[in-house]
Amino acid sequence: MPATDFIELSLDHCIKCTICTAACPVSAVTDLFPGPKYVGPQAQRFRRDGEAPPDDTVDYCSGCRVCNEVCPTGVKIMEINTRAKARIVESRGVPLRSWLLGYQYLIGRLACGPLAGVANLFANLRWVRVLAEHLTGIAREAPLPSFSGYSFRSWARRHRDPHAAGATGRPKVVYFHGCATNYYEPRVGEAAVAVLEHNGFEVIIPEQGCCGLPLLSNGIFSHGRHHHQYNVAQLYSYAAQGIPIVGTSTSCTLTLKEEAPELLAMHDEQTRVVAEHTYDIFEFLRLLHERGRLNTRFRRIKRRLPYHAPCQQRAHRIGRPALDILELVPGLTMVESEAACCGLAGSYGYKVEKYRIAMDVGAELFDFIRASGSDLAVCDSEICRWQIDHGSEVYSVHPIELLREAYGLAPGA
Amino acid sequence: MRDTIVIGAGLAGLMGALALAEAGRRPLVLATGHGATHWSSGTIDVWGQAASGGPRAAVAAVIAGDPDHPYARTGVAGLEAACARFRQVMQAAAYPFVGDLHSDLMIPTALGAFRRAALVPRTMSAGALQAGDRVLIAGFRQLRDFYPPLMAQNLRSQGIAAHGVYLELPPVNRNLDFTTRSLAQCFDDGAFRAHVGAQLARLRGDASHIGLPAVLGMRHPLDVIAELERHSGGQVFEIATLPPSVPGMRIASILERAIVAAGGRIQIGSAVLRGVADGDRLTTVISEAAAREQQHRAVRCLLASGGIAGGGVRTDQTGAVWETALGLPLAAPASRRAWFASRSLDPRGHAIFRTGVLSDDRLRPLDQRGVVVYRNVTIAGGALAGADTIRERSRSGVALATGWAAGSRLAAIEA
Amino acid sequence: MSRSLTADVLVIGGGATGVGVVRDLALRGIRAILVEKGDLTHGTTGRYHGLLHSGGRYVVKDPQSAQECAAENEILRRIMPHCIEDTGGLFVITPADDERYAETFVAACRACGVWVDDVPLAEVMRHEPRLNRKLRRAFAVRDAAADAFLATEANAADARARGATLLTYHHVTDLELEGDRVTGARCEDLRNGEAVTIHAAYTINAAGAWAGKIAGLAGLDIAVVPGKGTMVAMNHRIVNSVVNRCKPPADGDIIVPIQTVAVLGTTDIAVPDPDVFGIEPDEIALILAEGEHLVPGVSRMRALRAWAGVRPLYRDVAAVDDRDIPRTYKLLNHRTRDGVAGFVSIVGGKWTTYRLMAQEAVDLVAADLGIAIPCRTAVEPLPPVHGAPKSGHLTLGGRLRHVESEELYGDVICECELVTRRQLVDAITTGGAANLDDLRRDTRLGMGPCQGGFCTYRAAGLWHELRGADDAGGADAAAALTRHFIQERWKGLAAIAWGDQLRQQRLDELIALEVLGVDLLPAAVIADGARHPTVVTEHAAIATEYHAE
Questions:
Q1: Candidates C415, C467, C515, C545, partner chain B, best to mutate (most B CBs within 10 A)
Q2: What is the ipTM of this complex?
Q3: Given 3.30.10, 3.30.1240, 1.10.10, 3.40.50, which CATH number is that of A303-407?
Q4: Which pLDDT score, from 0 to 100, does residue A413 have?
Q5: How confident is the model at residue A3 (pLDDT cuts 50, 70, 90)?
Q6: Do B398 and B252 belong to one domain?
Q7: C-alpha C29: how far from chain center
Q8: Is C7:C32 a contact under the CB 8 Å cutoff?
């Protein structure tokens, strides 16, 4: 049977129990979305190649994958939905907004660096956002991250590994930084490099592009394919040597591991090898620890911090590696949220008709973080962090930043 | 890292994980998805047939007559211990259960049949109606899962003066779709409750009891009921209906919180693919994950992955039957021809649904020769052979008793 | 209790042919009454795979049938597009088939006037990604998928609108004979036990596989061989077009995508009695094994249900095998054949030719009655009924589009098949439905993956609200309806319940027993007609029992 069938045939596992819809954070707050069972395995039986897509409401799926997580029978609901969205795009064309959200990294490339100050000022002007909302449908209130005054890659070019001198034969690791780290949050990449180097790794930062997830989730599959092919070409030689590829953007690593290959039915050898060698950074650190190779000399951090495992992290199906590692830090207590999703779900909450839904979805998380009384929250996904900052007004960091602190490694080191 | 693995997140797995967590074993619960608790009626049903002396005596008789029944592995004492801890945990979460093992409560289904349950949440207990009671059954036309007139008429045919009505849906910001879950969310809102309460007061007439579908709030159902009772003047009770079950979801989330609070972790969305063993010790559990499998060191492991409904037992067109997580040997009908009775509702049930893992008196898995397969594994719930718990109406009782016992016994195993 | 009715023509049998006949009569202004012992389409029409034949299956061995099919195919597409999904069809040569048959097949198609086109395999695979990638040849034909429930309902609605009377649950117990003339029939109304006598100048026996039994009531012997055909519906549309093996017709050589499912068919086994047959495990194994040649992996996909129908084969020549009996139909004029006037039997044939069969029967009867109005069924379009698109062909996405644009999601009562509250209310209140299985034929209730696990209770609840007043003690009627429907669904499940579908059955059991307690209600079975004058759940005359394995 053709490899593309794996996702669609999974609808056969559906026993209609509605657990997915009962857990869906989107259908909980709006009835514009009839829920994952309805638009997923149920509607899929009514979709036929060659017939115009009969339904639009699947577009209200945020792609958060909570349905996949809770489904007791293994239906690939989110993937069914994303493919249905792509068929709608195929039959009706790509709206401007989807291009903008799919190619946001190009904007980052332009605005990051010396012009960041001006760009940030401009991007945060109310009339600019109102105008943009009218022109493009990107919600005026949605949290745009600030462009960094320098890119991560420019930092990396200047960076000198403090452990390099005299060291030979150190194990190597490839760091996949993703667009957010490069253009908005170089600090996350700096922390990742510091932690990996502190654990004796030589960190390689190869040429890389956007993982393509924003394109895939907006149904622009053909362009998403180009991006993934590019990254596979850049990363394969390392993976083929057994060098792990580690990322701090949990959605990028998920895309490399699974989303792109499965949605696009890319099952070639190179794609597979890259996927199998890709790790979420805490997944990687946890493996090191299991093999007794993680440096566990941590400073005491006497804090109790709220933690949210983002849906894209949970979609790796690897548990809570960040908690597993941070639990080793003396004095540190992490309290995990029970919220299903921050609401933003990639580019979903940026869309004017979905902004309110995204905020309502995120309400439980915002409440949890505010109720913690902490002035700091921890979350593995940049998009979720922006939403947490926006919704709860509590500053949030990637857990790798916390780990660097636990190692006593000063920022910028 | 965690080395106590629980496979399955239904009632059996969660009770087992709770026992392990409370014993300091920091269990990791791995499950494909949510468990069958989300489909259940949310009561603890110990035995479906009447017995003088109540469910406790019924179970004692079952054990005496069938030494391979799952209840025989826990004994009556094990069942009692499990019920006691379950009630404490639910009580602590402000979701108290009433009833005991000395007598069943007879509560009505959404069809209006009376079924027995040993423990029922306080939200349902006023549904234990007596002949001569006057009852208002109320629902919402927008909820396709509950039909008050039908239920009321069936109650009437059993001597209960019941009347079924549809309520007007209070103003909400939804109009397209109502599920049990979305209505439960509506009841978390004060204005919604007040609106419903006022209608109930108006419609109650001389009814002393008011039955509503089991959607009376997700987190604080007792408060919802108290408020509806204050408004209406009647005794309000919930009636379980089609999945997804709000009472079942409440139980699952209370147990999950208790497990996490006691040091456990829940990892759902992670189907267990297989185990690796060293002789008669399971050493590793392997779960499905993106791009790669995840390996978990297993010093001890509780298998509570369910039966055919739960997904712990799978079958195919050739008549093959297998245990999906660890590949344990199963007791199953010899061939497909022996799977089914000719009538769907045959009270004897269908042989295939009795399929499960044979176990010793410590709930450890046995092979066909009666040899323990893994000394550091115990089995609980629907994965156990020897009972068709849906026909027996013992599903939640067996899950509770064997889950707690399997977890407690497993906790004693040292690395 | 008894009543008596009179018409010009009595039609026996509420399948495609009988209903086609009654519509044809109505169009010619002939007063007609149709009687059917169950619901319309309760027999073979409701149990077939849904193929609108291009004729391709018969071109080699049975050219007359092929020509009839080809002509009727075009007519039906014109008069009832809303009942037909234009899926197109393929004849494919798999590695298991003789490639030389291709030339025989194409030549025979040309000879019969059956449209055929050689299709490049690359194009076939684009359109049908699940088909065997090792196919050697593929030919396109004008096969399509027909919804026989909708089509029969459309014919019935039009016949009623034109003055015909259709009586369901009227079981013919005897034919009225005056000398050598059939003058009507005596029936039992299964809903209330009432005896109904129908007087008619002419009686048309359109009882299909049951035609032999009907003729027997007049002491006539007609060799109708009930040819059991077993089919398996897969959980979703695994193919987009009808796919036939390009070889002499045999068991398990076709897949028909119809509505939300794909039907693998069929077997062909003569059975002695159209009311007594089972689905044998060997048949299912054979169908799946043969299906593997067309769609590799199909036997590991989820089967939704199996069922069997009985073909009304008419044996007037010595045929060794059932498959050798011609698929064409035969009109038997019992006056010329047996010396019994006022009685004709229309036997054999297939769904695709139902209209032509009706035309031929009515032509003869009209001539005998001295009515010269010609047949118009080939040109008079059938108005769409509920559940069918208002214009154009039936499409797979049509119902989803309808719910999206015009319904509340919460009103989708049967979620699998998107049956809405509105449709059910209509079917419960206006049709002659006597049980939930009749609602299924009207609406597709319970025909999806969960096989009624969720919607049975909902439908019973609605039934009780809408008809409880008619059915004294309506609540136990609802209980009986629930149990009846659960058993009706079970009949087709035991044969294919494994894997996901077995898991579904176990969840359905959990719902029925643990959550609802359908077995705990006091009323078990409704005594026939005793207290529920509009409900029929248990009656020997309509109990086509499949044996469980």
A1: C515
A2: 0.98
A3: 3.40.50
A4: 43
A5: very low
A6: yes
A7: 27
A8: yes
